[in-house]
Amino acid sequence: MELRHLKYFIMVAEELHFGRAAKRLNISQPPLSQQIKQLEQELNITLFNRTNRSVELTVTGEVFLEKSRKILNYINNACEEAQGVDRGEIGELVLAFGGSAAFDLLPTIIQTCNKLLPNITLDLIQLTTSEQIKALEESRIHVGLLVSPIESSLIDTEMLRTESFVVCLPDYHPLAKRNGPINAIELANEKFIMPPMQAGKGYYDAINKIYEDAGFTPNVVQTAKEQHTMVSLVAAGIGIVIVPESTQFIKLEGIVYKLFNKPYIKVNSIAWNKDNKHPVVKAFLKLMREIIIPKYN
């Protein structure tokens, strides 16, 4: 039995007329009649009661019609799903993100994917840049949102956006009460909260460039990975912290964010294992290049 036998049978069952069914199938009537006879012989059942004036389904034919439709629907759905997977429109994408990406970038990506790639499920996991690099190299995640530059021959990256740094101060700090931006050198005698270098060298180096530009070595009294943690430590009076501008989405009592008088920036990138050829990764990167990256540049 072949699928065409089921298609021919269903068409005759719907028309109850071999001539009309043949016309819809764009074949002549004799071959159609022969195909139905072959199907009946193969199954050893009678699907139609035929007379010179009419064609009727047998009870057996009615049962076979119901099952045949289900079989063809299942096959059609399987073909559509397979084609969707091949186009990268169906599947699961493991997306890692870190730090400030959660505040504005990640929600934008999720909303855009839900709208334009509704059959892709995003499996989100929060990792530092260093953790993302290892996970990408080991193919445990598909795409990462991290801070570049990174050093890995296994990973490709593409710039997503640049983001300025701001300084988070206690609201009682003298600089917090001043109007306008501040000069980094004015922070030389402060106690600092810093992310550990192990969390991501690109992010760590970008902050250190601010200190180097201002000409001082920071007095680091506490390290912390997460933006919420660092800002909370500022509110508790532990020290001050330099953070990406999107961290200003965190609103806590007792803190103030201040701009610098110079454009200190970090680079956010998308990253993926260069050997990963999964269609869903290709579709996601295409969406990032066409929608998300232009939005932030």
TrEMBL record:
Keyword 4Fe-4S part of the UniProt annotation: no
Keywords, in A-Z order: DNA-binding, Transcription, Transcription regulation
Bilayer-crossing regions: none
Residue ranges constituting the HTH lysR-type domain according to the UniProt record: 1-58
Entry superkingdom: Bacteria
InterPro entries the UniProt entry points to: LysR_HTH_N, LysR_subst-bd, WH-like_DNA-bd_sf, WH_DNA-bd_sf
PANTHER family referenced in this protein's UniProt entry, alphabetically: HCA OPERON TRANSCRIPTIONAL ACTIVATOR HCAR (PTHR30346:SF0), TRANSCRIPTIONAL DUAL REGULATOR HCAR-RELATED (PTHR30346)
Membership in a protein family: Belongs to the LysR transcriptional regulatory family.
Protein name per its UniProtKB record: LysR family transcriptional regulator
Species, as recorded: Metabacillus herbersteinensis
